[in-house]
Write a structure and sequence with these properties.
Chain lengths: 562, 433
């Protein structure tokens, strides 16, 4: 099956294509070079005047796992009025802030996204996270496994185990939990909260293990690099949401000592303590430092106004945030000597000084960080806002007039406290394509995703070139997954499963012996039951037997050093 | 800190023909350290099985045949008959739901397509928790966290031993703790009279203290405890027959402890307005967390109830008691309680699924019933269609979510029978519909 996409205006930053009129060909689900003249074309889409990009990739979206389902259970009022009826093609569902799994898949695809990655998979909850992602159709998935608050890691570090032992443990966990990358949430802080510590700044010591977040971050950053895992350590830093958190963030960037880091939902960690309200923007200082540190990438975690639900592994900080819960109900959990979680509903208000400034801080960061290859477009769904606000966010970035109109509606104190009005930058379509496709794909090591060169998977989104960028990105004309048309005019026309991406760095199987003993002595699950097989993921995605449809895609790692 | 790398493996080596690390689906704890052997008489639990496990794994299921109106038929005929009934039904009620994750996924797909209602047989108990989750929330913990870190366990009005025979053995009376090589003895409190304490023994168990009130007056005792914890002392000398001094002593103990864990099992709290007890306990745990740490641990979740609640939540947004009759999920935990619907003459077909224990039979119903059940299931009369199905983790593989709503476990195919998976039968019906 050879498909020709004729005459679209193509934005493909991975291949340096910036708004050029090009023909694209796909054969059997992959993009191929132009065939020799006279080759029979089976199907042709005339795309003159339309904008063509690879399918979009969300590198940080809480779509699967226990805390998301706690959020769903916690908030029936979030779903009521947001029910979605079944159709001949699609299942019913519901949800505004925390949509049901099928609805999540459909909505992503209807917005031109063909992949989304769950950034906070607890090892103890990995099976369920994959089950939920398996029930999320249309898009590719993958997950970052959380390490650095688990007893085994902290204990190994405290006992000064050989670094290769720690790397073996990291790699084992990635294999066992079927992860694409590793995340650290409030380094050591989730564990410290179990010992009744209420904060843990970068150089504060965990009272039981005697370690600092700095030790933990550096170990994991170095571990990822030496294991050859493409995505650097994904860091949800210290002091989420705390006024003054900008100082921990600045110190973390400096602490990296050149090691690759990804700082996630950095907006929530960019607060100063200036002004009468003791809450100010740290965006200019953070952006300035980021511009000098090419080893650090970020995503924003932009907030939008309205009801949402925050769901995080950060039990320490989420407990702190419970005082802002709206509605006034919340869940905090200590989990399996492994991790924790906190689920706190939140309503961001444009007339609140703090919320309005949070909104502005996110946008300041977007506009002040120079290199779009190191900044990804996220709302930290659902923490800052549900993911389907992305088209609105894109318009805010691309349309200065619109942005300033929005700004003028906000709390006047917040307007005075932000430099946003002075920022003239408007993102180009090329930069948007970097932030939402090429950049995340490169950072996550998805070699055949996020671009339109020969060999790439034919995940393609076609938009009408509308002046209203929100309308443009909200309702793509066509979305193709593996070369199949799945969405037309923003409506699902075919339901597909989507693959699960994993990375499998090498490790010495000898680590399994002490781990098995450790599980026997202290845990309530056996090591071999903790481990997820490929078959479990393949089954839950599509029912095909292993290998038949490539449901688990192993992205290559670089060579392990030492 | 224990140096685990030098630690010896526990127990002796398994027998050569033993199947080890078997997960048990017969209660919400899903213990996964069972050892099974198979001989000419069938499957035997060789190690780490409680009475529920022995009853579940060793039960004979041979010879069961599908039936339509009480007559033996082949499975295709039974599936066809079930499909016809569901097609004709304007409001099928999908109840029981004693199954694993794949089973409940298949129920959801079928209920969505056929415009039915979904509700688990043990929802009444689960809703003592869900109502609190949906109104105030809570601070909870999990089994491994409790096993290693709890220093005081407070059992609230629940017969844990009966519901989860290995809870005290596996979670409370454990020799090792991650925190220290010489873990201190644990104090166990029971709030309520007549609760089975026979499992509370062994080297890690210190004091066992009972606050002996009638179960239906537990709300008074936990309210007094909550007041003491909040610093508003109770005036009376006793509350529901329990001396206030004892309640105060428990309050002081909780405040002085590193990690007191309040344990309850919602099915045990079978008295009116029991959710208020769960609510009060959740609130007092929150209050303890203002200065120190504490957590709740809700048990129960037998018969696949946790998987049913979780899968229904992630697929529909709501934890059971959902109707798909309008084409959209419609949630009302009072209106769509299947026992209440049956009593009120709502629904025109009951589809009952129970794959774990034969006790989970369908309730009496005046409407036609399709039963997908483990052989030997207790029936009320002759169902219109009966399809014997396998038990996940015995007759076929699967996955199940544990009581703490965090951990899920793979269930093994132990080859007891060739009975079909509920998920496959339901998928065949859905396809034919």
């Amino acid at each position: 099956m050879l498909i020709k996409f004729t005459g679209g205006t193509v934005y493909d930053p991975a291949n340096g294509v910036n708004g050029e009129v090009r023909d694209i060909y796909a054969r059997d689900g992959r993009i191929v070079a132009a065939p020799p003249p006279g080759t029979k074309i089976d199907q042709e889409y005339s795309l003159q005047g339309r904008t063509v990009m690879a399918g979009a990739i969300d590198p940080h979206s809480h779509i699967g796992g226990g805390k998301v389902t706690i959020g769903r259970m916690l908030l029936p009022e979030d779903h009521q009025g947001h029910e979605v009826a079944r159709t001949d093609l699609t299942r019913s569902g519901c949800g505004h802030a925390v949509p049901s799994t099928m609805t999540t898949g459909y909505r992503y695809a209807e917005m031109g996204y063909t992949a989304a990655f769950e950034p906070a998979m607890l090892p103890a909850n990995a099976r369920q996270a994959h089950l939920e992602m398996g029930d999320t159709p249309m898009i590719d998935k993958g997950a970052f496994v959380m390490l650095g608050n688990d007893d085994f890691f902290l204990r190994s570090l405290a006992q000064k185990k050989d670094f290769s032992f720690i790397k073996d443990y990291i790699a084992f966990t990635m294999h066992a939990a079927q992860a694409l990358a590793v995340k650290i949430v409030n380094p050591g802080g989730i564990s410290a909260f179990k010992f009744n510590q209420r904060q843990l700044d970068l150089d504060e010591r965990h009272q039981f293990y005697g370690l600092t977040p700095r030790d933990i971050i550096l170990t994991l950053a170095r571990g990822m690099k030496e294991l050859g895992v493409p995505h650097p350590i994904h860091i949800h830093g210290c002091n989420l949401g705390v006024p003054g958190s900008m100082h921990s963030t600045l110190a973390t960037i400096r602490a990296a000592e050149g090691l690759p880091l990804h700082l996630t939902h950095i907006q929530f960690h960019s607060y100063g303590t200036e002004g009468d309200m003791k809450f100010s923007s740290g965006a200019p200082q953070i952006a300035e430092l980021l511009n000098q540190h090419s080893n650090v990438s970020i995503d924003i975690g932009q907030i939008m106004f309205g009801q949402t639900c925050t769901a995080s592994g950060d039990s320490m900080r989420q407990y702190g945030n419970t005082k802002s819960a709206d509605p006034k109900k919340w869940v905090v959990m200590d989990i399996e000597c492994d991790n924790g979680c906190g689920v706190v509903p939140m309503t961001y208000r444009d007339k609140s000084y703090v919320n309005a400034l949070q909104w502005a801080i996110g946008l300041e960061l977007f506009l002040l960080v120079n290199d779009p290859w190191r900044i990804f477009l996220t709302t930290d769904h659902p923490n800052g806002a549900p993911f389907y606000y992305y088209p609105h966010l894109i318009r805010l970035l691309m349309d200065r007039t619109f942005r300033n109109e929005m700004l003028e509606k906000l709390h006047p104190g917040a307007q005075a406290a932000t430099i946003l009005k002075s920022l003239d930058r408007e993102y180009s379509l090329y930069e948007i394509a970097i932030m939402t496709r090429a950049g995340p794909a490169r950072s996550l090591g998805l070699r055949d995703r996020g671009h339109l060169g020969a060999g790439a998977t034919a995940d393609i989104t076609v938009y009408e070139d509308l002046a209203d960028r929100e309308a443009m990105f909200k309702t793509p004309l066509f979305v193709f997954k593996n070369g199949e048309l799945i969405v037309r005019n923003g409506q699902v026309v075919k339901v597909v499963a989507g693959a699960t991406h994993v990375a499998r760095p090498e490790y010495d199987r000898a680590i399994e012996k002490p781990l098995r003993e450790y599980f026997e002595r202290y845990h309530t699950v056996k090591l071999d039951n903790f481990r997820l097989s490929d078959q479990e993921i393949v089954d839950s995605n599509c029912g095909h037997t292993g290998g038949e449809c490539g449901c688990v895609i192993v992205q290559p790692c670089g060579p392990r050093t030492s | 800190m224990t140096n685990w790398t030098q630690a010896k493996g526990p127990g002796d080596s398994p027998k050569s023909n033993a199947i080890t690390d078997v997960a048990c689906p017969f209660c919400g704890l899903v213990c996964d350290d069972l050892e099974m052997v198979r001989d000419e008489t069938g499957l035997k639990v060789a190690k780490n099985g409680c009475e529920k496990a022995v009853a579940g794994f060793e039960r004979k299921v041979d010879g069961a045949r599908p039936q339509v109106d009480g007559r033996d038929v082949d499975i295709e005929t039974a599936i066809r008959a079930a499909t016809d009934l569901i097609r004709k039904s304007s409001l099928p009620l999908y109840g029981g739901l004693g199954t694993d994750v794949d089973g409940i996924r298949a129920v959801m797909a079928l209920a969505d397509k056929s415009g039915g209602v979904v509700d688990h047989a043990l929802s009444e108990g689960q809703y003592r928790n869900f109502r609190v989750l949906q109104t105030t929330g809570w601070i909870m913990t999990t089994l491994t966290e409790t096993r290693n870190r709890a220093d005081v366990i407070i059992v609230v009005g629940s017969d844990i031993q009966k519901l989860h025979p290995r809870f005290f053995e596996r979670i409370v009376n454990v020799e090792q703790s991650l925190l220290t090589e010489t873990p201190a003895k644990r104090t166990v409190y029971f709030i309520g009279k007549g609760l089975d304490q026979s499992g509370v023994k062994g080297p890690r168990i210190g004091e066992v203290i009972t606050l002996p009130c009638e179960l239906e007056r537990i709300d008074e005792v936990v309210s007094a405890l909550a007041a003491e914890i909040k610093g508003t002392p109770v005036g009376a000398d006793s509350v529901a027959g329990v001396p206030t001094a004892d309640i105060r002593a428990l309050s002081e103990r909780c405040k002085a402890s590193a990690y007191p864990v309040f344990v309850w099992a919602p099915p045990s709290l079978a008295f009116p307005n029991a959710d208020l007890v769960v609510n009060t306990v959740s609130d007092l745990v929150k209050d303890l967390n203002v200065k120190g740490r504490a957590a709740g641990l809700a048990l129960g979740g037998n018969e696949g109830a946790i998987s049913a609640g979780a899968v229904c939540s992630w697929q529909s947004g709501y934890p059971l008691r959902v109707s798909f009759s309008s084409g959209k999920p419609d949630y009302d935990f009072t209106r769509y309680a299947i026992p209440k619907m049956l009593a009120g003459g709502e629904g025109d077909l009951l589809v009952w699924l129970a794959s774990f224990t034969p006790d989970l039979g369908p309730p009496p119903a005046s409407i036609p019933t399709i039963v997908l059940g483990t052989p030997g299931i207790k029936l009320n009369g002759t169902p219109a269609v009966y399809i014997p199905i396998g038990t996940p983790g015995v007759d076929h593989g699967g996955r199940i979510i544990r009581v703490d709503n965090v951990v899920s476990l793979p269930l093994r195919d132990l080859g007891r029978s060739s009975l079909p998976k509920a998920a496959d039968v339901l998928a065949a019906i859905e396809l034919a519909l």
